[in-house]
Amino acid sequence: MLSVDTETKDGVTRLHLKGDLTIYSTAAFRETLLELLVPGLTLEMDLGGVNELDTAGAQLLLVAKRELAAREGQLKLHNHSPAVIEVLDLLNLAGHFGDPLLIEAH
Question: pTM for the whole thing?
Fold first, then answer.
């Protein structure tokens, strides 16, 4: 289950995601997300509450980045949870998003 809290302040929309961003939740979230993507939008996603991320969730993040870029907007990911870091690292996507993330030494 995924819950999303949305707030807009100073022209920036912030999404706080909590739960699983997986194939089971992305279809419903995709519709909501795409409705938010207006030209020039700066969208920040707080991923600290994401417990699980799979390839469907990663694809949705890629779609959001692509669609915002096409609309001259920007996607910023922050507060990456360990589950998000693991998948972005595994899929070699951390550099693609360009957001700073902390990877702990093992």
Answer: 0.88
Of 68, 75, 79, whose CA–CA distance to 17 is shortest?
79
The span from the CA of 98 to the CA of 6, in Å, is: 23
Cα distance between residue 61 and residue 11, in whole Å? 21
CA angle 68, 69, 74 (to 5 degrees): 65
Q: Give start and end residues of each alpha helix (H) in the chain.
A: 23-36, 55-70, 82-90, 94-97
pLDDT at 46 over 90: yes
DSSP helix/strand/coil, 24: helix
11 band by pLDDT with thresholds 50, 70 and 90: confident
How many angstroms separate the CA atoms of 85 and 77, rounded? Answer: 11
